[in-house]
Prior knowledge:
The chain is of the alpha+beta class.
Amino acid sequence: MFCNITCELGKILNFALREAFFLTQGMKLFAKVAIQSGINSGSDRKIHTVITQLRKHIVQHGPALLRVPAKLTPFTVQKKMMLEGLTLVFKEALEDGDFEFLDGRWLKVEVRDLELHWYISYQDDKLVVAEHIEQEDVSFSGECNDLVLIAARKEDPDTLFFQRRLRIEGDTELGLEVKNLMDSIDLDSLPSPLKFLLQQSADFIQKGMQDAGAEKEVMNAH
């Protein structure tokens, strides 16, 4: 199952990586010049500055690179990936029947900056994913980077909710059940390769967002 998820993600990311190559060429050239010109003075500081700028740039523009290939991915592929991913992450919760609160009800999950959304429910003791429904009961929406940080336990959902980076709309009680289920995810129960990928991605995103925040504070100070 993990292999299937990895293969499908690889297909989606392939296009994004090609686009990222062209996006980062200017930054790489700048890094090379900085290294060559800084051999005698301040080279470490210049290299650090270039790496920081490159990381910030990728974090800020990465979702835009993913948007096109993600939207072009057929829903059947998206559905397969979602079901396999949810079954993997919530294996214990599904075995314990913790998804019964979604029986006959619909949760909308939206990744705003990727312009993607899915409808999730629980029917006949299993999760189902739909492309269209008449009306969802509750919706969760956030941006790609924030959702990765939540999944990796780098951000608290409540904090993002109060900052309006995470939006929960609809049935409040149902929304609380979903949030509690998210909080119950045990990263140690994930396959090691998936856990490593999630944590490395979250660390990179977190540092990139911190870089952008620090730069904004400096600009505001002037």
